[in-house]
Amino acid sequence: MEKLNKSDIIKEQVISIQGLYKSFGENSVLNGIDLTIHKGENVVILGRSGSGKSVLIKIIAGLLKPDKGIVNVLGMDIGSIDEKQLLKLRLKIGFSFQNSALYDSMSVRENLEFPLIRNSRHLTKKEIDHAVEEVLEDVHLHQTINQMPSELSGGQRKRIGIARTLILRPEIMLYDEPTAGLDPITCITINELINEVQERYHTSSIIITHDLTCAKATGDRVAMLLDGRFVAQGNFDEIFNTEEETVKQFYDYNFIN
User: Fold this and answer.
1) Which pLDDT tens digit goes with each residue over 90-117?
2) Which terminus in the chain has less CB density within 10 A, N or C?
3) Is domain 1-92+173-257 in CATH 3.90.226.10, yes or no?
4) How far is Cα 112 from Cα 128, in angstroms, rounded to an integer?
5) Which of 85, 71, 89, 76 lies closest to 33, judged by CA?
6) How far is CA 10 from CA 40, 119, 227, in A?
7) What does the domain layout of the chain look like in residue ranges?
8) The dihedral sign for the CA sequence 242, 247, 253, 256
9) By C-alpha distance, which of 235, 8, 197, 221 is closest to 94?
């Protein structure tokens, strides 16, 4: 596939969020979020646990409804589209879950075939086999094709989860804590894979994390979420070249060099 040069990112908006609010009972989670994601861009949302990061991407994926505000994804208003339109939109959005969300009773091959069989019923067996083999090559795990998820390491499960998402060729990728629970070497592999996915598949991505190494390695732009609001946006160095105490505390907590 043709690779995308990050310096040539097209400034077409694929996600536009304005004045987004979300609460659960008395717990106010998002308090007036504004965010724009451009085509081909990796944007990292940084924040501590419970800061609203995962709620934000669940709203973008249509898994949660906003209380107030506009969430426009690929030209569609998440708050006003019907179920049929939402299902169609979700086929263009890849969601990489924190726990990989593989079916333990299925082999790697069957896990990857499942979304194709469910959503692309016109494909032949040969076309499905080719798609599975291609996406496994892209995540560098072709040798696992007949293994069960229980036989895979945590990093391999994460990569197979990403592969299963990629097999439908999404326009947008949403990564929920992609390096959580992984050792430092495996984290580097996942960070490299996120960048490879951007280049090979021309995806626009949101990467939810509290891992500063992941943020620095993968983010074209970083937005820091604290207390339900973005307190800083820019590239990694712009975010952390500051005397803002809350931002400095987050940096120091992560012990990044």
Assistant:
1) 999 999 987 778 999 999 999 999 999 9
2) C
3) no
4) 9
5) 71
6) 7, 29, 31
7) 1-92+173-257, 101-169
8) negative
9) 197
